[in-house]
Amino acid sequence: xxxxxxxxxxxxxxxxxxxxxxxxxxxxxxxxxxxxxxxxxxxxxxxxxxxxxxxxxxxxxxxxxxxxxxxxxxxxxxxxxxxxxxxxxxxxxxxxxxxxxxxxxxxxxxxxxxxxxxxxxxxxxxxxxxxxxxxxxxxxxxxxxxxxxxxxxxxxxxxxxxxxxxxxxxxxxxxxxxxxxxxxxxxxxxxxxxxxxxxxxxxxxxxxxxxxxxxxxxxxxxxxxxxxxxxxxxxxxxxxxxxxxxxxxxxxxxxxxxxxxxxxxxxxxxxxxxxxxxxxxxxxxxxxxxxxxxxxxxxxxxxxxxxxxxxxxxxxxxxxxxxxxxxxxxxxxxxxxxxxxxxxxxxxxxxxxxxxxxxxxxxxxxxxxxxxxxxxxxxxxxxxx
Length: 385
Fold this sequence. Notes:
Enzyme class: ligase
Pfam family, one: Arginosuc_synth
Keywords: Amino-acid biosynthesis, Arginine biosynthesis, ATP-binding, Ligase, Nucleotide-binding
Strand content: 15-25%
Helix content: 25-40%
Number of helices: 11
Number of strands: 17
CATH superfamily of the domain at 9-185: HUPs
CATH class of the domain at 9-185: Alpha Beta
Strand order of the largest sheet: 3-2-1-6-7
Radius of gyration: 22 Å
Shape: globular
InterPro entries: Arginosuc_syn_C, Arginosuc_syn_N, Arginosuc_synth, AS_cat/multimer_dom_body, Rossmann-like_a/b/a_fold
GO molecular function: argininosuccinate synthase activity; ATP binding
Order of helices and strands: EHEHEHEEHEHEHHEEEEHEEHHHEEEE
CATH architecture of the domain at 9-185: 3-Layer(aba) Sandwich
Oligomer: single chain
CATH topology of the domain at 9-185: Rossmann fold
């Protein structure tokens, strides 16, 4: 859809190259734009404030909105439902799009915006995610997709031209974005793409992680981490308390410091292509070691088989922007019935890219066979596994 001079456009502003170029394009069309910068845990607040200040100096309106709680709650869902995608990586980018549209689109409407725009590549996964969630949560807002617009593509035929314009206008660019690379980050994780990494022969070690260390760079001594689950959700990590923002940050710090983070995959995308992506989710990777063990001790064979099937449904739903669809609601309801009363505690030993379960306790679960401890002929339901 074309941008009109008299309508106010709400811009999903990440501080990445293509999103800033959208701002430049609208500015040069004299179209009023209001940029919404969401704090979803992608970087510290000073960097977001720098983006906001540069856009205000540029002459546009800016709102910085704290969405860390919403992002953390969605990260908690990713773990509870193990909503992963092709190759087993965590759906952190798809999850971020759900959070951004569901939280910011209604705010844009309340602020008097007539349409919203984003910097996603034309025909890509994210374009479809914004369009689908936008139609579900704010159907009154028109959607402007600059990188399917001939005028915008004529002004910015490539990322080099985008970088030139963003630099000339003095806009503050996220450090993970440039002409040859792009990083999408939030509290749950980050994804990395670049011209170099598109070559499948390029070794993954060419990547510069956003937060994490490579295993050989990590501390020589292991760290013991205790993860507590209550009602099927994380309740504490080493004293973090139950707030998902706090325990997600704690898990990210531990996982990143000890090199537990990497997924290098060639994913099958919504649009039918394949694309290499490298995914950095240190907190979710760490917590999944503990949650997987709790599930193994708490669900019987039939329950675990059903859980895994539903998890695959939800992984696809998050990836394909169908998280609000009836099938996804039904899958979540079913998993909630399976895991809603699971309590337990897992102690992990974390060292140089490996998180090993040292011990665990569960307060609900299937009957454990104690063949050797009971003489081989008795069964007991115990708390320690």
